């Protein structure tokens, strides 16, 4: 059992509407010592069904771009701001985001990533605690205190944005490329694929 098992949320009932709409709680996935943490908004239908973040169409877009920049999906950690699927895929409310914040902060603290990549407006505004025009600010890196610790955060558009608006493709690709560079810069011994205990 790794430390991350501690934050595998299994029985939360803080958000009545989400308890109603979810079929299961979708926890983060990926190595406990990953250098990069991707944070999405919340599970969609496919994630709710599969029990893993970013396994639907957005996930395919993300996986493909990760491969392109040499960051395999299996080497990064992927999680969401809320762990339960909102009804009709609406955005999570402020209250729901706050209810789930503790789980996210704990995951960040245990992982201690070199860089947190926020995918889209909801996670970016949630973690930076300000309004953000993600398309404009994608690719920029900010230092932000999360919990008690200063963190490096890279703003990225949501992978789904590239499906609706082709012009966002390059923005997305450039930001993911930047994530790979930031993960390398701090170059922990052995790099991305090292797994403690193996
Ligand atoms: N979109 C998200 O923000 N998160 C997922 O897990 C899937 C799609």
UniProtKB/TrEMBL annotation:
It comes from the Archaea. Its EC number is 3.2.2.27. CDD domains: UDG-F4_TTUDGA_SPO1dp_like. SMART domains: UDG (SM00986), UreE_C (SM00987). InterPro entries: UDG_Type-4/5, Ura-DNA_glyco_family4, Uracil-DNA_glycosylase-like, Uracil-DNA_glycosylase-like_sf. The keyword Ribosomal protein does not apply. The keyword DNA damage applies. It holds the Pfam family UDG. Gene3D superfamilies: Uracil-DNA glycosylase-like domain. Residues 27-177 form the Uracil-DNA glycosylase-like domain. GO terms for biological process: DNA repair. Belongs to the uracil-DNA glycosylase (UDG) superfamily. Type 4 (UDGa) family. This is Type-4 uracil-DNA glycosylase. It comes from Natronococcus pandeyae.
């Amino acid at each position: 059992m790794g430390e991350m098992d501690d934050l595998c949320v299994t029985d939360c009932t803080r958000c009545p509407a989400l308890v109603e709409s979810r079929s299961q709680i979708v926890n983060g996935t990926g190595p406990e010592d990953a250098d990069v943490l991707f944070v999405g908004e919340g599970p969609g239908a496919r994630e709710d069904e599969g029990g893993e973040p970013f396994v639907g169409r957005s996930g395919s877009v993300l996986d493909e771009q990760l491969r392109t920049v040499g960051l395999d999906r299996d080497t990064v950690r992927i999680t969401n701001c809320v762990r339960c699927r909102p009804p009709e895929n609406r955005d999570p409310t402020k209250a729901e985001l706050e209810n789930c914040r503790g789980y996210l902060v704990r995951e960040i603290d245990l992982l201690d990533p070199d860089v947190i990549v926020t995918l889209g407006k909801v996670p970016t505004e949630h973690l930076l605690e300000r309004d953000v025009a993600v398309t404009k600010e994608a690719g920029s890196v900010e230092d932000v205190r999360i919990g008690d610790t200063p963190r490096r955060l890279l703003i990225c558009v949501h992978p789904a944005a590239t499906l609706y608006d082709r012009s966002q493709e390059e923005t997305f690709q450039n930001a993911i490329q930047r994530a790979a560079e930031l993960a390398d810069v701090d170059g922990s011994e052995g790099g991305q694929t090292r797994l403690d205990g193996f």
